[in-house]
Structure formats: structure tokens, C-alpha cells
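To: structure subgroup
Subject: Chain for Friday's discussion

All,

I'm putting the inputs and outputs inline so they're searchable in the archive.
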Amino acid sequence: MEKITLNRRRILLSLLLVSIIWVTPSQANDVCFTEADASKIVVELEKGRICEQQVVQYEVSVKELSIQIESLKTQVETMSKKFDETMKQLESERKIASEKDKARLEEIKTAGKPQWTMLFGGFGAGALLIGALVLLL
């Protein structure tokens, strides 16, 4: 864009310089512009100025947009990191919940079975106490 603008500027300046040199008093009668040609030159010069202003505005816009893009990239990176951390936390919570469920199922299974070991354990301790009392008396 800058090269095009610089080329246009150089061309316009060259045309202006050439026309000034040709319009010296010695050659004033040789080179003449009609009013229509002069108005076309003025219009083209104005278009060139307007184009230059637009180029400057576009360059400013490009800089602002590139800053916004960088900001959005950092936001995307932080959101990605947060998402990854949340996924890891969710996976660990699922594992913990699964282990809790397994432990509860084991408790339910053991609660549903008869407690023969407790019955014999209590019976054995009682039998020993009774046997010891019988021996002592």
C-alpha cells in the first residue's frame, strides 16, 4: 500500500514539476492547459490526497485490529488452560465418586450377609468365660 501511495505521489510531483518547467515564460505560448484539463488535474490531485488519507486511516485500523487479535489470542489461551484444568478436576471427581460408590456397594454387600464371625466370636468369648468360671469354682 505504501509503495503504491509513494509511486502515485512521485508521479503527481513529477507531473507537477514537468508542467511548471514547461510553463516558463520563454515557453508560455507553447504549453497551455484548457480549463477542462486544469480542472481534471486538480480533481486528480484531490483524489490522491483523499487516497493518502484513507491509507493512513487503514494503517491505523490495521494496527488496532492486530492489537485486538493479540488480546483475543491471550484470552483464548487462558480459556483453554481453564478448560483443561476443569476437565482434569472433573475426571478426578469422577474417580473419587466411583471409588465411593464401590465402597458403599461393598458396605451394602457386607451388611446383607449374616454375621457368622461375630456370632461365633461372641459365642467363643462367652464359652471361655463360662469355662473359666467353672474351673475357678
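Points worth raising on Friday:
The chain is about 90% helix and 0% strand.
The mean pLDDT is 80.

D.
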